[in-house]
Amino acid sequence: MTIPIYQADAFTDELFGGNPAAVCPLNDWLPDAVMQKIALENNLAETAFFVKNSTGYLLRWFTPELEIDLCGHATLASAHIIFTELGYEGDTIYFETVKAGTLAVKRDGDKYAMDFPSRPPFAADTPEGLVAALGGKKPLKVFRSRDYMLVYETEDDILNIIPDHSALAKIDTLGIIVTAPGKKVDFVSRFFAPAAGVPEDPVTGSAHCNLIPYWAARLGKNILHAYQVSARKGELWCELKGDRVLMAGKAVTYLKGEIYV
């Protein structure tokens, strides 16, 4: 049995930038264990699998370690492949997901605009060992939603973090977001998820479900421009719309082929 596989770099218009995701279109779901093994074999932050239905597509995401509830860059990569490789003729794709509901992705010029749920973070105590695992510099504030979110004073604070991934993996959370005001954009961020098999994620759409409502409230505006300042870097155009967030980005196809299962 063979299934098609694509790989796209999301939140960038340059190959080898942004966040790479594998995308596997399926006629029917494979066993969960097989999809998990494919994700592990791909060894990327996420592998997306989708199956066409009457209204769009059913969508699931796997890290090398586990299936996750929401992934932005692999959703963007999936939409890019459907539009550019699978001949989709509409302007909006609707993905049905188990834990994140319906996600819409609209083609907007050279970008793809994703409609995701807003997840405003709430103030939280700092778990033992977290600050030390991020290099020891104390953040201004600590929040939590699905992930911990630490707010720092400057972009340089974010760039200078040298994480201890083994220590971060012991924190009881899927991921850790660090963020600060940007020099050329409204805000910058990085994202670490070693417990999920992703030491540092290059660009993280799901983290922006937390970041957008926080920065919209802090800056007093709903339209925002953001960079995720990982080594590969990513750019997002964001908007807060009530209990939803819009994040737009670009994508480029890196490879296409077949998997023998």
TrEMBL record:
It comes from the Bacteria. GO terms for molecular function: isomerase activity. Pfam families: PhzC-PhzF. One of its GO terms (cellular component) is cytoplasm. Keywords: Isomerase. The active site is at E46. NCBIfam families: PhzF_family (TIGR00654). Belongs to the PhzF family. This is PhzF family phenazine biosynthesis protein. It comes from Mucilaginibacter gilvus.
